[in-house]
Write a structure and sequence with these properties.
The structure holds 2 protein chains of 2 kinds. Helices cover 0% and strands 54% of the residues of chain A. Chain A has strands spanning 4-7, 10-14, 19-25, 31-37, 44-49, 55-58, 61-65, 71-76, 85-92, 100-101, 105-110. Chain B is globular and about 40 Å long. In chain B, the strands form 2 sheets. In chain B, strands 2, 4, 5, 6, 9, 10 and 11 form a 7-stranded mixed beta sheet that branches. A 4-stranded antiparallel beta sheet of chain B has the order 1-3-8-7, with no helix packed on it. Chain B is an all-beta fold. Chain B is 0% helix and 49% strand. The chains are: A mainly beta, B mainly beta. The interface between A and B is medium-sized, with 26 and 27 residues.
């Protein structure tokens, strides 16, 4: 079946630094989603991307839909302690109702 | 709006016991789904439903049953729990499940099977 890879698996950064993470697939997707999960809670949608090449921002977060449609990127600028959590990417193709999730990137922010 | 509500939040079962994880949404979403989350493996789809009376299997359906008698509710049943079913379970819904319709998640049920 379809699989997504996320890198890095985990990262430790200093407060105030910028963060970059990515998600890659061997298959083409028509929708890319980025979610954040806080401990003990369900994933919360951060950004949704629907068009190849699309660049979308949500506050300090910016995500891009890769031109090949096989990857997506998430950047966080000027990280703060509440950015700590697990970031998941998810892909959906035009013909499938279901979403495929990556294994997540665990972000830790050091004060 | 309550969104997607899951109960219970925590559950401990002995091997062989049965139980039902409840999921309800008040957003009139047609599409509902169940995922399990295991360390390092992301979220894997167990079962899904595109509307009342319609259910289908996802990636890891074995050991689980579902039904969808109403638009609002989508319970997940474990008929005979096994230690391999120790996991965190998430219910999620979207208006249609189609393109341009992201998933909304509940807060999860943490299940331990001993």
């Amino acid at each position: 079946g379809q699989q997504l890879n996320q890198s890095p698996q985990s990262m430790f950064i200093q407060e105030g630094e910028d963060v970059s993470m990515n998600c890659t697939s061997s298959s083409i997707f028509n929708t890319w989603l980025w979610y954040k999960q806080d401990p003990g809670e369900g994933p919360v949608l951060l950004i949704a991307l629907y068009k190849a090449g699309e660049l979308t921002s949500n506050g300090r977060l910016t995500a891009q839909f890769g031109i090949t449609r096989k990857d997506s990127f998430l950047n966080i600028s000027a990280s703060i302690p509440s950015d700590v959590g697990i970031y998941f990417c998810a892909g959906q193709n035009l013909y499938g109702q279901n979403f495929v999730f990556g294994p997540g990137t665990r972000l830790s922010v050091l004060p | 709006n309550a969104g997607v509500t899951q109960t219970p939040k925590f559950q401990v079962l002995k091997t062989g016991q049965s139980m039902t994880l409840q999921c309800a949404q008040d957003m009139n979403h047609e599409y509902m789904s169940w995922y399990r989350q295991d360390p390092g493996m992301g979220l894997r789809l167990i079962h899904y439903s595109v509307g009342a009376g319609i259910t289908d299997q996802g990636e890891v359906p074995n050991g689980y049953n579902v039904s969808r008698s109403t638009t609002e509710d989508f319970p997940l049943r474990l008929l005979s729990a096994a230690p391999s079913q120790t996991s965190v379970y998430f219910c999620a819904s979207t208006p249609t499940g189609q393109y341009n319709s992201p998933l909304h998640f509940g807060n999860g049920t943490r299940l331990t099977v001993t």
